[in-house]
Fold these 2 entries.
Entry 1:
Amino acid sequence: MSRIVVAGAVIDAGRLLLAQRARPEHLAGLWELPGGKVEPGETTAEALRRELDEELGVEVTVGEAIGAPVEVAAGVDLVALRAELVTGTPQPREHLAIAWVDADELAALCARGVVVPADTAWLPDLDALLRGE
Ligand SMILES: Nc1nc2c([nH]c(=O)n2[C@H]2C[C@H](O)[C@@H](COP(=O)(O)OP(=O)(O)OP(=O)(O)O)O2)c(=O)[nH]1
């Protein structure tokens, strides 16, 4: 059975929330959409709400999927969902840092190779959202 990892595209005022991974070693220092593994019995939306609370201390509402799922490892699919902040200011509890980036800054980070490789597949979708199309 395949496992799902869910990641959140939190967008506020034309900027996307990115988080810088602290682990594992091959991903440490790279920027990602924050999220984590969906636990048995959870929906992807429930898992994303739990992960963003645990990792960043924020409450979100979860929206539609962005782009297509990406296989990050054998039998592990990564899914991105839109999310909106309801309460709280994101704090990096498990990440090295967080950043709010606009469309140009996101493209520049992808071009520099400092975004988690799987997430770069969503660049066109995220770019369109950030530019309000
Ligand atoms: N959260 C997240 N994980 C990603 C992204 N891109 C990507 O390849 N991954 C990979 C890294 C990890 O192998 C896996 C998710 O790991 P995680 O560390 O975020 O999940 P978790 O919080 O449930 O982790 P854990 O405490 O169970 O170790 O998916 C992304 O944008 N967000």
Entry 2:
Amino acid sequence: MTDTVTSHGATIVVEGVSKQYGDAFAVRAVDLTMAPGECVAMVGHNGAGKSSLIKLMLGLTTPTEGRIRVLGGDPASAAASHIRRQVGFLPESVAFHPSMTGRETLDFYAKLKGVPRTGNDALFERVGLEPAAVKRRVGTYSKGMRQRLALAQALLGGPKVLFLDEPTTGLDPALRQSFYEIVRDLRDAGTTVLLCSHALTELEGQADRVVVMSRGRKVADGSLATLRSLAQLPIRIRLTMPDGSVIETTCANDDKVAAVRRATCAMDCKGGVDVTDIEIVQPSLDDMYAHFLRREAAE
Ligand SMILES: Nc1ncnc2c1ncn2[C@@H]1O[C@H](COP(=O)(O)OP(=O)(O)OP(=O)(O)O)[C@@H](O)[C@H]1O
């Protein structure tokens, strides 16, 4: 255990945290723990409380109730500069000065963060910004180049905790792919990564855990497998016939073998038709997200 990890081995501990603005709750009684090397996706509608929770974990605001520990300390305390130096943040929209070059921009942020700029070339290489691009003014950058620069800014100082708010908005599929490759490398190297996104389908396969927020509350938290088993949503089975037609049936996950048997038997009885393909479609993250929101609304 290092001094940057709490006694539970977690890098982030959020306990019973609420944040009120006037009478309105932006965040309500949230508990959340994250471990080193864990990538968590936080999803929720506009206004669900995701950014408010990130601001609390960054120490930019303080909880109305509850306690937050990041890397073993209170991120909002005056003495937390050593914590903040180990935390990276990629905000939803980053506005760099258009007349500064990529290099000048990263040097500026390195100075703000109090980390040496000697590692900046390696950072540019890591995020895929070519040396020629680094010398250009940011005003001439494409959206993808700006986002790469924004990621380089978030990676300054080799953060142990990284918050990424809607990191892939506006990026083409190839860039998204390379972005998630970088995130995977960071996670494998032990960085705790929290990813906020509306692009739910894209998050499948990227995150170890999914946290669903709704109206300031955490309404679900678990791996996709755990959320699937909690939601108990039906799976879809698609059977392709020799003539190319598709028969679709739904059933509980535990019942899929019996359901295929029932469906093929029914066809046999009708004249012995072979099945050329079977596809089992698990509920998507979108389906589960909708389920947990419906359940929360009904409570
Ligand atoms: N500084 C503030 N003053 C007053 N209300 C606020 C403030 N910050 C957030 N809120 C309110 O708290 C709620 C949660 O907002 P928040 O920005 O955290 O949601 P979000 O999930 O990040 O949404 P989005 O996906 O649109 O970014 C909203 O109702 C918002 O209006």
